[in-house]
Every structure is written in structure tokens, then in C-alpha cells.
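Checklist before submission:
- one chain only
- standard amino acids only
- sequence pasted in full

Submission:
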Amino acid sequence: MSKEQRALLDARLRQPRPVGTPSVEGIRAGFRALMAEMIVPAGIRTTATTLGPRPALLVEAAEEPRAGTLMYFHGGGFVFGSPETALSLTGNLVVRTGFRAFSLDYRLAPEHPFPAAIEDGLSAYRALLDSGTDPSGVAFAGDSAGGGLSITTCLAARDAGLPMPAAIVAFSPGLDATRTGESMDTKAGIDPFFTRETLEHTGAMYLAGQDPHHQLLSPAVLADPAGLPPILLQAGTNEVLLDDSTRMAERARAAGVDVVLDITADVPHVFQAYAGVLDEADEALDRAALFLTQRISTASA
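Returned file contents:
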């Protein structure tokens, strides 16, 4: 059944798309429509709030909440997406862990290129700590570009002298703006979402002419991860960004960071969003929830 689910999903994702280069608003609208198809689990409540200077969506378990906080970064290539488009992912993590999640509405390119998103993440984390939240009760999590932000925001927090959160969970993170991973070529045509050209199109908006050879743009190849908390990296074999995760795991391990590299066969980018449709998505979210509950200190959260 799972093999059939994967094949059906792959075929669905390969449906013809509009020809030509879409506008920024067209990209954003298309992504909203795509993510509106995802199943948001029952058993959560959401509240509009702020975290630092930015809006955020607070997602909580309606029943049996547990002490613990996730700071979530949505995906979208730093150009599109919102806490609402990521609600299937945050909702599933909240339901599975009982922890609350603050999904951050960070600034997007091209209006706000690098390093605006990281600055917003760092300000949000400072606000969380200033509110009295113990870092041992906090984890960073995110998907795609937001998965990259979960790591780069942590690097920025470390360099700013802030205490580290308890853990990081990154789903199919984007961690190399230089696009030098072998999977960029070996998975070309296998990935139903991305090509090098589409990634470079949105990536150029985030870079705004800046050199991608920067540790906060390409941590998988340039960052020193020493001192980061335990990291869970989840990715699928059918994505051009696969080597962003594999090289980040190697780099973290070499720096003495506890890291779990969790690769699922024959699934696409951020396959966890298809919970309720794809068995592998639910299983991966279960593993992510276990990782988080094992590391977040509920006594001091």
C-alpha cells in the first residue's frame, strides 16, 4: 500500500504546470493553494500573536498539553509561505508531542533579502527567552527554507552568546546556497518539485546579489556547527536538496554534535506534509515527535 501511495503522490506532483516564469505573487498564490490541500489534524487550537517584532501563530494542543515549546520556521524558499501554509506540519508536531508551537511569520524576499529572516528568528528567540521560557524546554523546527533557518538561527544565537535550545528538527532543509551538492544533478528529473533553475530563481531573490559563500547561507559546506544542540535531519531520496542534509550531518558529526540523519526512500521534498495520505509521512512525524520528547525538558519548560 505504501508503495502505491508513493507512486500516486509522485504522479500527482508531476501534473503539468503553467509555462513561463511566474511572478512573486503568482508563486505565493500557487504555494498557498498547494498547502491548502494538506490535512490539518484535529485537536489543535490556533491564536494570532507576536514573538519579538514579528507576527506569529501560536498552535496548541486542545487537550492534554505538555510543557515544552517549539519555535517553527515555515518553508517557502525565503520568498513564499506563512505560518498558515505550514499548519499541517506544526499541527501534527503539536498533536504528537503536546508541546505548544510558535510558528514565526518572518520577513520574506525579495522585499527583505538575507539576513532578514535570520534576524527575525534571532529576535523571536530572544523574546522567548526574555519571557522566562527556559531554553532546555525549547526546540527549533522547520521545513525546507525554514528547516535551514532552524539551523542558521541557532548558529546566530550561539554566536550572539545566547543559550542553546534543547534540539533542532529540520525537514528537507535548504542548507547550501552554493548549490554544490551532487544530488542537485543526480536527482534532477527524479525530484517532482524542484530543478536547479527554479531554486536559483527564488534563491537569487533571497541573496539579492550577495555571495552565497557565507556560513549562514551555506552551513552544510561552510559553518562550524560546534556547540549546537542535537539535530534531527529528515529528507527523502527523491529530492535535489538531499545532499544539503547528508553533508550537514557529516559536518555536525565531525564537530561533535549529536545528529540523526533520517532518510526515507522514494519520497519527495517535505513529504511529512502529506500526513494522512502517505504512511511514510506519519511515520516520520512520529520519529520526529519521539526525538523532541526525548530532548525537551518538560520540568523546566
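Reviewer check: The first strand starts at residue 44 and ends at 51.
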